[in-house]
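Question (not urgent): is this output format expected?
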Amino acid sequence: MNYKSIIIFAMALSLVACNNEKKEETKKEGSMPAMGMGMGMMNPMETVEISKTNPLVMLKLAGELKPDQQTELFAKVNSYVKSIRVDIGDRVSAGQTLVVLEAPEIQSQVASAKAKLEAQQAIYLSTKATYDRTMKANETQGAIAKDALDQIKARMLSDEAQLNAAKSAYNEIRDVNNYLVIKAPFSGTITSRNVDVGAFVTPMNKEPLLVVENNSKLRLNLSVPEANTPYIKLGDTIRFHVRSQPQEKYVAKVSRKSGSLDLKLRSEKIEADFINQNGSLKPYMIAEAVIPLQNSEPTFFVPKSAVVESGMGVYVIRVEDGKTQNIPVSKGRVMPEQIEVFGDLNNGDKILKMGSEEVQEGTEVPNKPHNSDNDKK
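Got this back:
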């Protein structure tokens, strides 16, 4: 094949390729409308008929397990750690001695106050004995002058007042001395220890000497969204599991409700007590909880897509007499495909299945067959 033949052959191939590309583009352009029609585009004016129902809605929340009681123990006076009788993980009983501190200056003050108290007691007893003898001698009319009686009585009352002051001073320093012995405020477990023997401790220490927790009962803390708070009552059952043991299921009872909403989260704090019999759950574990919510009477549930949220508020679009009408609603419980709404709605009303801000109020809607929200979901 000569050079000219090669050039002619290459030009022929190029023309064939270009022709095929044009045919392919023409084929695609021609087939696009048919494909769109074949797929059946969604009708934006499709309506659903609503009716009241009362389904059991399962609310899923993440919560945290907390100990029933927890106390951080600090030193109340400047002192040194003399002995520590417990360690992390130890079980303790209420009133059990945990830490013994020592403060020589306080012990010296206790001894001094005790000596002053004993001295003042001796003075008072002597004065009172003199007063008693004088009063007995005065049983004979005029035996002792009235001024002498008044002076003896005044001295006795003064010594009695000084005795009471000495008692108060002694009791005060004795109470301070009692702070040197730290005892368990309740039965529980030592979960943290931050000091050793010989350490100097003060009330201003950042870390506590010990932390005691009562883990025999745990509190499941949950924050319930505002829309769901009316459906939760004391005594309701909550089922939950923890992330570290997803195969284990636990049950707790709602024991407390805060009765107020958190300003930031707009939710109510609730607590459910769980008896941690075998200690399988630990405080501060994350729990995945499921709470059944059911109303006392039927309400409206509509497709989530039917609810419009805009600057004008939250509403659904009702079709009445062939025209659209915006109906303001407030949202309630949420299901996977539907949401509870409250507003000026009635059984049998037809609403747009696909609500949109672009649908202006008063838009005419063709009279076409509608779906029912009670169809299989």
